[in-house]
Amino acid sequence: MHIPWTSLLTAATLLTPRVQGTRTGPSSSPSPSPRPKNTTQYSIQELWALEKTFWDNFLYPANLEQTKAINSTLFAPDIQGRVDITRVFNGSTLNTEYLFGLFSDPTHLSLVGVPIAYSITQFTAAANTNLASATTVVTFNATSFGNLLLPVTIDTWIMWNAAGQIEQYDATFRWFGFLVDTLVGALAQQINGTTAAATAYLTQLLADQICATHDAYCTGANQQYADRDACYAFLTQSIPLGKDYELGRNTLLCREVHEHMVQYDPAVHCPHIGPTGGAYCVDDQSYSQKVLQQYFRTSWLIPEVGGAGQDVWL
Fold first, then answer.
1. Residue ranges of domains in the chain, CATH in brackets
2. Strand pairing report for 166-173 and 148-160
3. What SS3 string covers 174-238?
4. What is the DSSP letter of 160?
5. Tens digits of per-residue pLDDT, 34-57?
6. Gyration radius of the chain over CA positions
7. Element (DSSP H or E) covering residue 18
């Protein structure tokens, strides 16, 4: 059974739920950041406020306003970020596009759609430091899958500078493979088909969307494919759809992530959806290399524990 993907995309009617007594949703105003302290010694209460400020702005449509800013003031200009299922992201522009722009259009074909509510279920921080660890359950409206509401668990370590801006973060999506299987199952029900048929159909949908974006934005020097047929053939035949941990490898799912960002900066992002992968959708790391990658400038270990010398990530 063939259903045009556009029939699956409906404008979301976004409700404003209350999650564990905390009002979160598109009609709530993002909480302001604490005033700059000119010191990175924050109280636990201030770190909690900074944590909530980020998640308030992560929700739709507040994230749309952040995206329009191009360089969100919530991020330090030289911010470093890592997401386990994808890659590392450097600088405020790229992080604004990725963390806010990726989830800011309910009418665009997307795996998880837009975030509409959150609940911080775990939080810990040490007083007089600038870092906190949290677990946040974010409710996404998967508008491409019949407005399916999905809870997504995200574990984060976040470090703020003296201006109250995020200077580095490390994020992990829990049970993401289970989430992808759930989405494929929902699509199978929509087309009244098997899991294999739904996976093939999802491949078709994503390839069509990526090629349409390429035709619209990747022109002139930014062109990656000779024509629409070459684009579709590469995306459906030359690379795999990808496993749940391969959103930063040479897969269709990786290109689905970066397709959302092409509109913001074609010169930067067109290569990411092209055959080369633009150094983002490439198989350039083994498992051990990914685990042991030395990326962050600053250790997540506080000096008091005396363990900075054994930090293999530095």
1. 5-174 (3.10.450.50), 194-288 (no CATH)
2. antiparallel
3. CCHHHHHHHHHHHHHHHHCCCHHHHHHHHHHHHHHHHHHHHHHHCCHHHCCCCCHHHHHHHHHHH
4. E
5. 555 678 999 999 999 999 999 999
6. 20
7. strand 18-19
Name the residue among 167, 154, 173 with its Cα closest to residue 90. Answer: 167
Question: What is Dmax (Cα atoms) for the chain?
Answer: 62
Q: Tokens for 93?
A: 């522009």
Distance CA 214, CA 97 (A): 17
Convert 47-66 to b/e letters by CB count within 10 Å (16 or more is b): bbbbbbbbbbbbbbbbbbeb
In this structure, what are the phi and psi dihedrals at residue 273, rounded to the nearest 5 degrees?
Answer: -95, 0
CB-CB contact of 280 with 261 (8 Å): no
Residue-wise pLDDT tens digits, 64-109? 999 999 999 999 999 999 999 999 999 999 999 999 999 999 999 9
76: Cα separation from own chain's centroid: 18
The answer to whether the predicted template modeling score (pTM) of the entire model surpasses 0.85 is yes
**Reported confidence tier of residue 309, pLDDT bands at 50, 70, 90:** confident
